[in-house]
Every structure is written in structure tokens, then in C-alpha cells.
Amino acid sequence: MLVELQEGKIKNFELPFKQPFVIRGGGDDMFALKWDETYLREMFKQTKIDVEVYKKFEDYETSKSDLEPMHFGDFMDKMEKENVYIPDCSLLNLTTPRYVDGELRVDTLDRRLLDDLHSDKLLTNPFALLTIPVDYYFFMGVDTKTGAHLHIEDDYLTCQIVGEKDIWLCDYEHLNIRSLFDTYNNFAKENVFKMDWDMVDFPIYHTRLKPGDMIVIPPNMWHWVKSDGFSIAVAKIFENNDFSWMNSWKYRKLRYRQSLNQLLPTRIKEFWRMNFG
Ligand SMILES: O=C(O)CCC(=O)C(=O)O
Ligand SMILES: [Fe+2]
Asked: Residue 275: pLDDT band by 50, 70, 90 thresholds?
């Protein structure tokens, strides 16, 4: 059954995240709410970004896409007409190579973009004071969906910046994780968009995010998203080294996967995915 997600305040925000909740207007003092296309083009310049390219619109539902590096400007030109999406783009790792008098320079992203994401309101929370986000993940696209997935290693405080989107969450035991070496390894086997959410016998928490709203996403909750029109969100990432929640029996598959992922060399995992994934 569909249930409205509970609302909370910035002061309820505590690390590590345990319960999901939405903080209405929690980030409405961020300058980023004024971002527009011209400004973003100027800030990102010719930075290359890994873009998800979808063969057909339905593929968004299972996040079945190919990653293609693309200049930010080209993405903006394409996003209205083509099935392209920028997901989970780490703003701290973005760099732009450029040649000055034949010498290579590598610029990091214009720091003003990060300043724009600053929120005084968040600083009123003692946990946020102690813990500066370790990264900022940028999401941008037009009319997109994201399939059900989990973030087991980090706490996501996702802030809606431009446009609106619906987000749904459910507890871990209600969906199944894809196989160990699947390319989409943090995704559910089920296509949740094909389910009748009113009829399922477990709660699906729903909320609609508007600019300035934030949502706390704990690591053990599936979530999936649909945005209408042009949407930008930025997730403030807080490191979460507390994996004790995974010790319970119901998370055993996740735990095996997590330890194998850490143990096996990347080359072996890549080989497996290419051939059997
Ligand atoms: O907006 C999206 O496409 C996904 C957002 C999300 O999954 C997140 O913030 O963790
Ligand atoms: Fe997510």
C-alpha cells in the first residue's frame, strides 16, 4: 500500500541515517535554487561527464543504459529530445583538461558551484557541523526515471534544486537484489514501475520533492524516482562506516556481495560482467 513519507526537521537528521524522512524547504536557502541553463553551461564549461544513454524510454525503469562520456554542453543540447541522463555525478571528482601554450592543465570544477550548495540551515544541525559532506552527487535530466536501487556505503541527503520529482521507498526485504556480478549490481531484480503499488502487501513510502526540499535516504532502503520535466537534484553524501545493520540474517546476500566486491580484483569482476552479467 502507498503511504505518505513522514516529514522531519533538520534537527532530526542524525548520522548514520536510520529512517527515511522528507525535510520540506530544508535547503531553500541554497543559492543553487537559482541555477539556470546559461549559468550551468558557464560553470561546467567543456567538462566531460559520464552520461547514461537509454535505447528506449522504458529502459529507464530498470536503469538499463550505457555510459557515455559527453561534454556538458552537448548533454544540454540533447537532454530534451534524447534519452540521456546524468546520474550520481561526483562534483568533487570532475575535472576539465585544457592546454595552455601546449601544456596540459587539469582544472577542477568551479568552486562557486559548491558554494551555491551551501545551506546555513543545515549547519544548525550538530551532525552536519561535525560532518561535512564527503561529496556532492549531481543528477540532471528531462522526464527521467531511476529503477529501484540501494546505496549501502553512504548516507544520501538528496536536495531537490530545480523542477519536481516523485520518489518512492520500501524496506529491503520486499525486493530482490540482482546477482553478484550484474552490471546493475545495486539494483532490484523487479521492475517496480510495473507493480500495482496500491495492491502490494507492504508499505511503499512516497513523497514529491519540490525545489528546496530534502530527503534522508538510509542505506538499507530501496528507492526509485520519476521526474517530470527538467529536474536537477544534488545528493549531499555523508560517509557511513557503520555496517552493523547488515549483520541481520535478512541482509546476508547483500553482505556476501559486499565482501566479495571488496575481495575480488576489479579485473575479475569486469570480466564476469562482460561475459555473464
Ligand atoms: O533522482 C534520481 O534519479 C535518483 C535520486 C537518487 O536515487 C538519490 O538521490 O539517491
Ligand atoms: Fe539513490
From this structure: low
Give me the sign of the Cα torsion angle 148, 153, 158, 162. Answer: negative
More confident call, 133 vs 132:
133
Please state, in angstroms and rounded to a whole number, the distance separating the CA atoms of residues 26 and 32.
13
Cβ(139) to ligand 1 under 6 A? yes
By CB neighbour count within 10 A (0-12 exposed, 13-18 middle, 19+ buried), where does 101 fall? exposed
Strand, helix or coil for residue 179: coil
C-alpha to C-alpha distances, 85 to 45, 61, 65, nearest whole angstrom: 18, 13, 9
Q: What's the gap in Å between 130 CA and the centre of ligand 2? A: 24
Residue 113 CB partners (closer than 8 Å, separation 6+): 32, 43, 91
State residue 5 phi and psi, 5-degree precision. -65, 140
What's the CA-to-centroid distance between 40 and ligand 1, angstroms?
20
Rounded Cα distance between 39 and 114, Å, is: 14
In DSSP terms, 208 is beta-bridged to 166
Q: Where are the domains of the chain?
A: 2-276
Q: Which fold has domain 2-276?
A: Jelly Rolls (2.60.120)
Query: Where do the H-state alpha helices sit in 69-150?
Result: 72-78, 111-116, 120-123, 126-130
The one-letter amino acid code at 24 reads R
- Measured from the CB, is residue 160 less than 6 Å from ligand 1? no
**What CA–CA distance (Å, rounded) separates 275 from 253?**
22
With cell 540474517, the residue in question is 249
Q: Looking at residues 114-119, what average pLDDT do you find?
A: 94
Q: pTM of the full predicted structure?
A: 0.91
Number of H helices and E strands in the chain, helices first, is: 7, 13
